[in-house]
């Protein structure tokens, strides 16, 4: 069964961007299912968001083995949505999964061993009802496992046909360069890196972006709104139902500090002067780097997706605008 998708979904100009040196294009805005799609959430809200996103031309949906809560439930729910609504559109979708964080008990349920990664990929495919994922990631580096083993498992995922492409997430610049080189020697390009990046966390500017360029890899930023802080929704305190208010939300109330909120106020003024909402401004700022193929947004409503995708209407920043942003949220060149 399938819905009939909006016939104008591919009409947004310049929305699809080449992922590094590959032939794959990703939408400038992609939807992540980390929060709001789990067993604790309302299934119909998540389903409506996925369908609306696809109707808007968002072809890329990002998952991981542990998304929920409970872990695995976001993949199960996404599998139901696919089966009921989007089955006819599989070839128009880029669906990703990852393994690296704690997923099942015992020594083979997390980190970067070949044993864990390949078992986890099989489990993700079963939960989503898929034959293959488009991109399979090593979710975090594992200093206790040889990088050759972790990258060998990713290469095996491609060779076995269970993943079309592979990537890494949360790897620093040096780890990324080494991972890309190992994969290259195995004849499999490292397609993409998925780092945290926002105005509040600029670590990738200290080296990772250069590595992505050298390695001809794409990039896709997660938490580009710092989990909602950069939307302005916390300007008057912590609203009911927001991520910071939820017991299972990763944004904790203690992270909503007066120091950050004062910066949000200043940034919002710059956004307004450009005719953008703060969320649109923060997303456009991430996409200003040619290495950033896409931004991964999270959303708890259709309205947020509709607002955020309009970030793409203005991705150009003047030197004065960039300087004004740097004065509020300076680049952190020490890390990365
Ligand atoms: N690789 C990794 O290690 C890793 C880690 C984290 C995330 N990710 C990926 O990145 C995706 C996005 O991360 P994220 O959810 O932290 O992204 P985010 O875009 O920084 O935050 C999303 C949250 O911000 C709020 N929001 C979004 N648009 C808004 C708007 N226009 N107005 C008001 N509030 C708005 C919503 O919070 P409310 O719920 O409060 O409305 C939403 O749930 C995840 O789903 C996942 O796929 C990957």
Structural commentary:
There is one protein chain. The protein has an eight-stranded parallel β-barrel, surrounded by seven helices. Helix 4 links the parallel strand 6 and strand 7. The chain has one domain (16-328): TIM Barrel (Alpha-Beta Barrel), CATH 3.20.20.100. The chain has 336 residues and is α/β, with parallel strands linked by helices. The model has no long low-confidence stretch (mean pLDDT 96). Helix 3 (114-128) packs parallel to helix 4 and helix 7 (258-274) crosses helix 8. The termini are far apart. The protein has ten helices and ten strands.
Question: How helical, in percent, are the residues?
Answer: 25-40%
The major beta sheet can be summarized as:
8 strands, parallel, barrel
Distinct small molecules? NADP nicotinamide-adenine-dinucleotide phosphate
Question: What is the H/E order?
Answer: EEEHEHEHEHEHEHEHHEHH
* Unreliable residue runs: none
Class, according to the CATH hierarchy? Answer: Alpha Beta
What best-fitting shape do the alpha-carbon axes yield? globular
Strand order of the largest sheet: 3-4-5-6-7-8-9-10
